[in-house]
Design brief:
This protein is α/β, with parallel strands linked by helices. It has 2 domains: 12-30 and 194-385, no CATH class; 42-171, no CATH class. It is built from 16 helices and 7 strands. Strands 3-7-5-6-4 form a 5-stranded mixed sheet, sandwiched between helices. It has a two-stranded antiparallel ribbon with strand order 1-2. A hairpin with a 5-residue loop joins strand 5 and strand 6. The longest helix is centred in the last third of the chain and has 22 residues, at 272-293. The mean pLDDT is 89. InterPro entries: GmrSD_N (IPR004919). It holds the Pfam family GmrSD_N. This is DUF262 domain-containing protein. Residues 55-201 form the GmrSD restriction endonucleases N-terminal domain.
Length: 389
């Protein structure tokens, strides 16, 4: 069903703590993913000890994703201490899910904080972490102690503790790997799609997205309104890069998540100078978007309403990418005619139901992607050619 433009309160994405993430919740529509041969799925349950896991970590064969710790959801000292207490009490931990990479290393997808806590307590120097001192334990009298302070038998108990792993082996097709982790990603607070992409696609793209999302240009254009707790801000940056590298008219898939995954892999394959060029284009797009749309950049606007809506992902793509495609001279004119841009954009939002639908419902549909980009190009062209500005 097509969306209808209203001034209703839109649904928003939530942070780890249940607060607004500053981004409108998105309906990507049905996803038509490429099929894969189920016979190629290779999932291997196995047990290993904490001591062996630490050896793999020291050899660089485990990726703990240090920048993947949820900034607002990371466990505090008490929670970490009580996990260690569970080990000392011989209480089994939940299964840890890992993906095997081409070089035989493991990427931890579910269980990062559990493993990080263990590493921080037993061998913090192996991951460059601050040592953990136990506190607020419920049953054992080891408050104020580090691993080295524990009796030898307790140190041995921790090192010989068996961990239950579910290993997705490297021969498993990528689409199947994402499908598996999406299916198991239901307990507690499920990972967002960007968190899953971040976990399963290591490489320079991770660092680039973090750099863009933390830049003053992005923060300025979004008025510091996007919460970083679920990597929502990194997904916005990725969507810009994806449509910059693959023009909208070449977007023909109905699998939007797969499109973004492919963009991350493509970024990983670029040279440092090519990634630097992407970074510069992104910064210019953010600055121009802020100058043209002001505090309403990437947000819905309606005639007769001064209301400020949350950021809309589809509008972020279409406004930022289309402005990035403008020449410096065109961008300057659009900035000078910002009031006319606002007038025409509000008219587009009010009068063109197809455009409203293209940014509100089934936004991953190829026809809707092309429609919203073409509509924005036409709007900017009208402003540039206007004689009444």
């Amino acid at each position: 069903m097509a969306a209808t433009p209203r001034n209703d309160e839109p649904l928003v994405e939530l942070t780890d703590t249940g607060l607004s993430a500053g981004i409108e919740a998105e309906d990507l529509g049905p996803s038509h993913r490429a099929p894969f041969d189920p016979e190629l799925i290779d999932v291997y349950p196995r047990a290993t000890t904490i001591d062996l896991m630490l050896q793999r970590l020291k050899r660089g064969l485990i990726d703990l994703q240090p920048d993947f710790q949820r900034r607002s959801g990371i466990w505090n000292e008490t929670a970490q201490s009580r996990l260690i207490e569970s080990l000392l009490l011989r209480i089994a931990l939940p299964t840890i899910y890992v993906a095997e990479e081409a070089d035989d290393s493991w990427t931890v997808v579910d269980g990062v904080q559990r493993l990080t806590t263990i590493v921080r307590f037993v061998k913090p120097e192996a991951a460059g972490l601050e040592p953990l001192t136990l506190r607020n334990l419920e049953y054992l009298d080891y408050n104020g102690k580090t691993f080295e302070d524990l009796p030898g038998r307790m140190q041995t108990r921790i090192l010989e503790t068996e961990l239950s792993l579910l290993l997705i082996r490297k021969g498993t097709p990528e689409e199947a790997r994402f499908n598996i982790f999406t299916r198991i990603n239901t307990g507690g607070l499920p990972l967002s799609q960007q968190e899953l992409r971040h976990a399963l696609i290591p490489g320079p793209a991770r660092d680039l997205l973090a750099t863009l999302a933390e830049s003053l240009f992005f923060l300025y254009a979004t008025t510091h309104s996007v919460s970083p707790s679920r990597m929502a801000e990194r997904e916005l940056c990725l969507r810009f890069l994806a449509f910059w590298m693959t023009p909208p008219e070449r977007y023909v898939t109905q699998d939007f998540d797969g499109f973004l995954r492919e963009a991350m892999r493509h970024i990983n394959g670029l040279t440092p100078s090519e990634r630097l060029d992407l970074e510069r284009r992104f910064y210019r797009a953010m600055l121009t978007s802020a100058r043209v749309f002001g505090e309403h950049a990437f947000r819905k606007q309606f005639a007769g309403s001064a209301r400020r809506y949350p950021i809309n992902k589809a509008l972020f793509e279409v406004q930022a990418v289309t402005l990035a495609q403008c020449t410096p001279a065109e961008a300057k004119i659009l900035c000078q005619r910002a009031s006319l841009v606002e007038e025409k954009f509000k008219k587009l939002m009010n009068d063109d139901l197809a455009f409203f639908d293209a940014i509100s419902s089934g936004t991953g549909d190829a026809d809707k992607v092309n429609y919203r980009f073409q509509s924005m190009k036409d709007l900017f062209r009208e402003v540039l050619e206007s004689t009444n500005a």
